[in-house]
Amino acid sequence: MSDPSAASLVSTPRPEQPTEFGAPTNAGLPENARKEKPRGLLGDAWRDLRRKPLFWISATFILVFVLMAAFPSLFTSGDPVNGALSRSRVEPSADAWFGYDVQGRDVYARTIYGARASIVVALLSVIGTLLIGGAMGIIAGYKGGWVDGLLSRIADIFFGLPFVLGAIVILTTFNGAGTDNNEWQIMGLVIMSLVVLSWPVVMRLMRSSVLATKEADYIVAARALGAGSGRIILKHLLPNCLAPLLVYGTIMVGSFIGAEATLSFLGIGLKTPVVSWGIMISEAQNYIRVSPFLLFFPAAFLVTAVLSFVMLGEAVREALDPKLR
Amino acid sequence: MSDILVSEQSAPGFGGSGRPSGRLLEVEDLRVEFRTRDGVAKVINGVTYHVDAGETLAVLGESGSGKSVTAQTIMGILDTPPGFVTGGQVRFHGKDMLRMSAEERRRIRGEGIAMIFQDSLSALNPVFTVGFQIAEQFRVRRGMSRADAKKRAIEMLDQVKIPNAKGRFSNYPHQFSGGMRQRAMIAMSLALDPEVLIADEPTTALDVTVQAQIMDLLGELQRERRMGMILITHDLGVVADVADRIAVMYAGRIVEEANVYELYRKPAHPYTLGLLDSIPRMDEKGQELRTIKGLPPNLMNIPPGCPFNPRCPMAQPVCREKVPPLLQVGTSRASACHFAEELVNRD
Known about the structure:
The structure holds two protein chains of two kinds.
Chain A: H1 33-36, H2 41-49, H3 53-70, H4 107-143, H5 145-160, H6 163-175, H7 183-214, H8 217-224, H9 229-265, H10 277-284, H11 293-320
Chain B: E1 25-36, E2 39-51, E3 56-60, H1 67-75, E4 83-92, E5 95-96, H2 102-111, E6 113-116, H3 130-142, H4 146-159, H5 165-168, H6 178-190, E7 196-200, H7 208-225, E8 228-233, H8 236-242, E9 245-250, E10 253-259, H9 260-265, H10 270-277, E11 327-329, E12 333-335, H11 340-345
Parallel strand pairs in B: 3-8, 3-9, 6-7, 7-8
Antiparallel strand pairs in B: 1-2, 1-4, 4-5, 9-10, 10-12, 11-12
């Protein structure tokens, strides 16, 4: 889009073109050069984020969870899969901080190992949903007309599918009994079904904020100054429509971890030996009264993770809004 | 209807010296209609005007007279649908912009013709700093480095007389006052050194003292850069100081075109006369404000004959039958009234 040759279009050179502008106060000081660069939206947002305790707290938690997902052996030497039935539902103690589950497996080790599936599934599904829904929403809102009509009807079709039913159809087709998908393939299928069934919400959200923003004078002004469609979408629409998406995205992280648990509970999602917080929670629900700690620990991790993402989303949203700086 | 208007350079001192012959920007017999569910509104019905380098043309008219739509059509930012250009030409350096490819037109925007808007708060993107938005043009259209673009942007802010331009560079639009935002908007429009600047009611959203400052600034920059400027306004007071020529619009037509002195001294159209009469005057304090009776016509159903005839105090039977063409009156002015000569020749 950057087109320096466009300058030649102005065919007649101006006789009195002002060549010297009002005395530049900071002309050519090389040692200043780096500081003189204008920061873009992201630069300013980052500078603002660094000052927020909310950001650092949530970022620390998320970092810990990510480490947990990547290298669970850093946090525990226990075995998440095999247990001794003799220790079934043994309460937390100094030896086993989180106790043992029904099968006599170490709950602490399982919670740590469960982070990977839960976080990978939730994060990738949210990213996928935001990308697909956001892109469709921007195109529909910006183009309008029949493009909008077509994309909106497609979204309506997916919107009409009940979540659980749709996921059952997708997952029993590709991940039914008798299939031997490995851990990553199952995660991919779960992510796919979550994305396929939830992008329409994001698309509608994006489309409506694009429709509201599109009429703003600065979009017209940008067009009047010769900006192309790509630049208008990326520089003007996207930054101004991002806030509701970020908020919704962070909320989705939590609901997707829950959705993954639902699918596992129905027997069509992740299966043993894969561990996830969702699986642990659904296994624990039959023993809530007798052994509440079985539910408490994975649920506490889940809540902490979701809360961290929500706080991070909030901090980022505030940083991206210049009026709150 | 198209080749009647031959109003020449009227302001002494701004003659076409130093420029190749040929008009800079010409609008000829432009016709635009809005096709809505309720019917077709004929918003522009054969507008013809031009602007040359170093000259300011004021387009005057009440709300709905089509002055902004003409500007939007020139810029190519008319919303289609509902707006459709049904005829005429917009020539920039003699080339019809309405027949250019989208890409060709896009390149003219900003570098050839730029526009400033009425409401500068909403015309600046709220999530980027003012300086960034100005510098962006240098980076994208001129391929400058970030540091160079910043330097140029600060120079531009300096030129539009924003105090402490360097410090203000990294402020956001909401941290600027109304007048400063309009200055920043002007800086942004002038960044690529356009040959024509269209100012669509640039001072309407500002208070009176700031209005005067902004008009002075625009006039000064226009003279310095020898730009052609089209100043769209409904404020007769704003026009007098800055404009060289005035085109008065009514119901999508130019009803009178003249240089400022002639138009104020002796209007050649009853509508202009009515507009000048309705300016509040200090020596008539306490009396009722004079107005033009009636309302502008419904553009979906423009009355036959002269569109102004239902409101015109001088209306005769011929006015209800024949549309008066825009004809030359005297040496350097034109009027679309059957009785223009009589108006000009009266005492």
